[in-house]
Amino acid sequence: MANPGLAGSRERSTESRPNPGPGPLSGNRDFLKLWAGQGISAFGSLITRTALPWAAIIALQAGPLEMGLVSAAQLPAACWGKPSAPSAP
Rounded distance, CA 40 to CA 88, Å? Predict the structure, then answer.
């Protein structure tokens, strides 16, 4: 025998169910632009973090001290996600 209190609460929960929304984000053009832009930005950041030390070694013939300085300049961006140079007002 079913408990009438449970059956009543089950019916009430279906009535107050929230609206599922406009649909999946894959159909939202603005979201797709944002997602693509963030992906391209992340890829560019990865290339920069990889290419900058190699450019210092190959093109500038950088030694251990200069490579340490290059690594130290990249540290703030790696830790906080911000460029090490101050931005212009």
Answer: 24
Q: How far apart are CA 32 and CA 54, in angstroms?
A: 33
Q: How many domains does the chain have?
A: 1
Read off the pLDDT of residues 28-59 as tens digits, 9 standing for 90 and up.
889 899 999 999 999 998 888 888 888 888 98
Give residue 14's pLDDT: 54
Query: For 22, which DSSP code?
Result: S
Residues 68 and 62 sit within 8 Å (Cβ to Cβ): no
Let me know if residue 2 belongs to a domain. Answer: no
Domain containing 55 equals 25-79
Location of structure tokens 């830790």: 79
Residue from 25, 22, 5, 21 nearest 13 by CA: 5
